[in-house]
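Hey, can you fold this one?
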Amino acid sequence: MMDINEIREYLPHRYPFLLVDRVLELDMEAKRIRAYKNVTINEPFFNGHFPQHPIMPGVLVIESMAQAAGILGYRLLDVTPADGALYYFVGSDKVRIRQPVLPGDQLMLDARVVSAKRTIWKFDCQATVDGKPVASAEIICAERKL
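Sure. Predicted structure:
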């Protein structure tokens, strides 16, 4: 549904912090998104995050979910960072890391809107690898004008 070039229009992040590679589904009516991050051994964090047993840091798994949620928020409001709007990750609840994410994994990211009040959005987010849950969280984002 969205390739990396379109994703870059909606997320201000750039290498090495852009953590969404493709959007597979974007259901505006159900207010949900499905995207993925291909995790490769070339990621810069693997050099220091247990070089003998490389795993993706859990905080980056959560950030990946937040970025997918951010794309959904931008699309629902029909704005981009170029319009002067930025979404900040401002909080999380019910965070669970269930298993490590390894080089070679495809990290599937699912997010849906739980609530939206003024400029504060709450998303229910799930991350899976091969259909198995690896992380979940309620992600809270706030829109700020530049």
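Helices lie at 4-10, 58-77. Let me know if you want another pass with a different chain boundary.
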